Amino acid sequence: MTLPSRRAFATAAMASLLVSCGGHGAGQDTDTAERPRSTPPPSRPSAETGGPAEALKRSVPVGIRIPAIGVDTPVMQLGLAADGTVEVPPIAADDRAGWYRHSPTPGQTGPSVILGHVTVGAYGEGVFRHLARLRRGERIVARLENGKAAVFTVSTVRTVAQADFPTDEVYGNVGRPELRLITCGGPHTSDGYRDSVIVFAALSSASP
User: Fold this and answer.
1) DSSP letter at 89?
2) pLDDT at 51 (0 to 100)
């Protein structure tokens, strides 16, 4: 699979700060907007679990289930908007998560990135409203287009200031199949949410 350059990943990473914050995505008009502010240092967490699972073939995700926080949502595909920022799921009553299609599919080697809202304006709470409650060892199941399910185990849940968004940790290359879930968190002001919530997980198994 051909992936965008590191610069495109960095652009997408910083643009992902808009997710779940009432920010502007492609074709959206919302009340407030978060703006990216900086590029973070090039370090990476270790998403260690009980042991790596064998990488899967490419297959687009169609749904994601997170039993510990009651998430069971369809997954749409997201790309880059004309201005170079990453698209985000639409602000709508039927809120759902979105897979950034320039990242690996869940189960492929590398970091697969899925974005979701914490709030959806007048419609209330978003699909990733409880993402920060996830804990190490809990499961995330990505349903794939080919009928398989990629099962990930959470290694780390981080809440970081949006000014310090860890671009390389989220989008940088890794040598095994991993998953990143991103939403907003922390205090909410008239300008939007202050922080980003990032879940790091590694593939632990796959089911037919």
Assistant:
1) -
2) 57
